[in-house]
Each structure stands twice: as structure tokens, then as C-alpha cells.
Design a protein that fits this description.
Elements lengths: L2 H4 L5 H17 L13 E6 L5 H17 L3 E5 L4 H15 L3 E5 L6 H12 L2 E5 L15 E6 L2 H15 L4 E7 L5 H16 L3 E8 L4 H15 L3 E6 L2 H13 L8 E2 L5 H9 L5 E3 L2 H16 L14 E4 L2 E3 L4 H9 L12 E4 L4
Parallel strand pairs: 1-2, 1-3, 3-4, 4-5, 5-11, 6-7, 6-8, 8-9
Antiparallel strand pairs: 10-12, 11-13
Helix pairs in contact: 3-11, 4-5, 6-7, 8-9, 10-12
Keywords: Signal
Organism: Paraburkholderia phytofirmans (strain DSM 17436 / LMG 22146 / PsJN)
Protein name: Periplasmic binding protein/LacI transcriptional regulator
């Protein structure tokens, strides 16, 4: 076992370095120096940050698709700012004259409406990922709003919590880390946690705090919990891998990493390594590489009229997709797949599990 396998997650030194990494991501994710050819469609993805392993994989999938069709690609990062995310998209719409296919994971759910309306007005084609209001639908903006792709956060939030509680022997105190309050995935995953708690009366939720999907924010929260609750903490539930790894780093500082079970979601490379080493009990792999490219493929095929949106059933326009629940039993297979990611970009609906369910 190599050192990376022995020490899952990110070190405290790496936490500090992330500040410089974020600045690099902003500089590298802009539009400076990019030429927009006349009549040539530009592809773009807008997402939170290139410092998060999930979005790194998402961006690589988008790059792979763009290379496969020989079109220019622009990554846009919000860095957690709705204003920046929307402004960057509007600027790109203007630069391209609307000759744009956009795959966007909005910073907040409300941002999706503004982005869709801007794309529709400019004649661009857009697919949204994860976040949007319940009353915003692709068929309301034909043909420019192509699709919305998401996953059943309630089901997977409950499944990771159930796995955690079973590893605790069905009893004891648990602390929980949530994502951004206004994000649909954060809301749904917390609802899944709540559903699991109702089924395990021996589990006590000691505290729930929001860490905004961020390991750096999760780290001090976990430190404070260990001071406050001490030995009462028997498990840690996190709504994504990055926060789970922040909690694990805090546990490691006390010599408790691998002794107190932790679960996450996203199936990131550091999260998978943590499962392999025994420091993370479970995660969920959404295959962000596939998500990054398939949203662009859907948009480009709609723009080129290779698919007729008006004839598609609604579950092909607003879809829950299939994911892989990851534990130590299958983590090696998932690691191997992530190391050499592949996707069939023309098979648009192979992973559609059914329509989005609004609860």
C-alpha cells in the first residue's frame, strides 16, 4: 500500500495551499486569449471550482467531449459567487453572439432561472445540472433549455446514512455536515439523513451544521464538535466527500481517523482512496466525468437538430440518473474506472433512471 492509500484525504498543509489553487483556477478558467471563430459553436461549462476533485473530473469530461467534436471549450468557475457565475455566462453569450452550448451547475437553485432566460434570449442552448427551482422546466423554454440532469439525493442521502448507522451498530451519537442551504442536492440529502434517523431510534443526531460543501469549513466544525461532544461522537455523516475529508483530517489530528466511521458522497478520487484505506465507510459516485460531457452533448445535438426536443418524453428532459453506491467491496472497481474514464457521448439516455421526483 502506498503512502497515498495510507493517508486518505488532504493534509493541513494542502488545505492552506488551496487558496493559491483557487486563484489559479479563476485565472485559468476565464476567456482571455480565446478566439471565437465565425460560425463555430463554442462549448462551455459553468461550475463551482477547479480545486474540488468532483469538479475537476466534471471539467475533464467536458474537455473530452469538446475534443471529440473539435469545438472550442471554455470552463467558467463561480468560486461560490452567484453574481460571478451569472456575469461570466452573460459575458460569454455576448462574446459568442449566442452561438453557445452551455452545461451549468448553478451556484444556487435560483440562478438557474436567470441563466436559462439569458440563454434563451440569446439563442444559446443550455443543460442544467443538480440545481434549479421546482417550477422551472426545460419544456417551458423550447428549444433552448435542453435538459435538466440530477440524482435522487433523498434516496442516496438515506442510503449513506443507513450504511453509517449500521457500521455504528445501530446506536450512538452522530454529527452531520450539510451543503449550501439553498442547493437542491443539499436539501435532498439532508432529507435522506432525516428519513434514516426515523428508522434507527438508537441513533441520536448530536448536531447538524452547514459547511458549504467545503473541506476547509468542515475541518474547524469537526474540531469544535470533538471538544463539545468528545466520546459521544460515534459517527459522522457528510453530504459530500470534500466535507467528509475535512472531518477525517480533524479526526486524524486526534488519532481517531478510521476509528470513527464517516460517510460522504460524490465518489471523488480522494474519497475513494479514503474508502480503500478504511477512513471513509461509503460514498456515492455520480460519475462527474460523464456529467460534464453529456450535458454538452445533449445541447449540441439539440442545436444541430439531431434530436427533436418537442417529441421527447418529459423524463428525457428532466431526469434522475443512475449512480454507484461505493463501499470497500466495490471501491477498487470504481477507482479503476475513474483512472481511465470513458463515456459514450452519443448515447444520451443510457443512464436515465426516470423522471425527477419533487418532494
Amino acid at each position: 500500500m502506498n503512502r497515498q492509500d495510507q493517508r486518505a484525504g488532504v493534509s493541513r498543509r494542502d488545505f492552506i495551499k488551496l487558496g493559491a489553487g483557487a486563484a489559479f483556477a479563476v485565472a485559468g478558467g476565464g476567456m482571455s486569449g480565446l478566439s471565437f471563430g465565425a460560425g463555430q459553436t463554442t462549448l462551455a461549462c459553468s461550475f463551482r471550482s477547479l480545486t474540488n476533485p468532483y469538479y475537476t473530473a466534471f471539467n475533464k469530461g467536458a474537455q473530452s467531449f469538446a475534443k471529440s467534436v473539435g469545438l472550442p471549450y471554455v470552463p467558467l468557475t463561480t468560486e461560490g459567487s452567484s453574481e460571478k457565475g451569472i456575469a461570466d455566462i452573460r459575458a460569454l453569450l455576448q462574446k459568442t453572439g449566442g452561438n453557445l452550448v452551455l452545461n451549468v451547475d448553478p451556484n444556487d437553485s435560483a440562478d438557474a432561472r436567470v441563466i436559462v432566460e439569458a440563454c434563451s434570449k440569446a439563442g444559446a442552448y443550455v443543460t442544467t445540472i443538480w440545481n434549479k427551482p421546482k417550477d422551472l422546466h426545460p419544456w417551458d423554454y423550447n428549444p433552448n433549455y435542453v435538459a435538466h440532469l440530477s440524482y435522487d439525493g433523498v434516496a442516496y442521502g438515506e442510503e449513506t446514512a443507513t450504511q453509517l448507522f449500521k457500521s455504528m451498530g445501530g446506536k450512538g451519537g452522530v454529527v452531520a455536515l450539510g451543503g449550501i442551504f439553498s442547493n437542491v442536492p443539499a436539501i435532498e440529502r439532508k432529507a435522506g439523513l432525516d428519513a434514516a434517523l426515523k428508522k434507527f431510534p438508537g441513533i441520536q443526531l448530536l448536531d447538524f451544521q452547514v459547511a458549504d460543501w467545503n473541506s476547509q469549513k468542515a475541518f474547524p466544525i469537526m474540531q469544535a464538535w470533538m471538544t463539545r461532544f468528545n466520546s459521544k461522537i460515534k459517527g459522522v455523516w457528510a453530504a459530500n466527500d470534500d466535507m467528509a475529508l475535512g472531518a477525517i483530517e480533524a479526526l486524524r489530528a486526534e488519532g481517531l481517523a478510521g476509528q470513527i466511521p464517516v460517510t460522504g458522497m460524490d465518489g471523488t478520487q480522494p474519497g475513494l482512496v479514503a474508502i480503500k484505506s478504511g477512513e471513509l465507510v461509503a460514498s456515492v459516485d455520480w460519475d462527474p466525468f460523464w456529467l460534464g460531457g453529456i450535458g454538452l452533448s445533449m445541447g449540441l445535438q439539440a442545436k444541430e437538430k439531431k434530436i427533436d426536443l418537442a417529441t421527447l418524453p418529459k423524463d428525457r428532459r428532466e431526469s434522475f440518473c443512475t449512480a454507484t453506491f461505493v463501499t470497500k467491496t466495490n471501491v477498487q472497481d470504481v477507482i479503476a474506472r475513474a483512472a481511465s474514464p470513458k463515456a459514450e457521448w452519443n448515447n444520451l439516455y443510457a443512464r436515465v433512471a426516470g423522471p425527477v421526483v419533487y418532494r
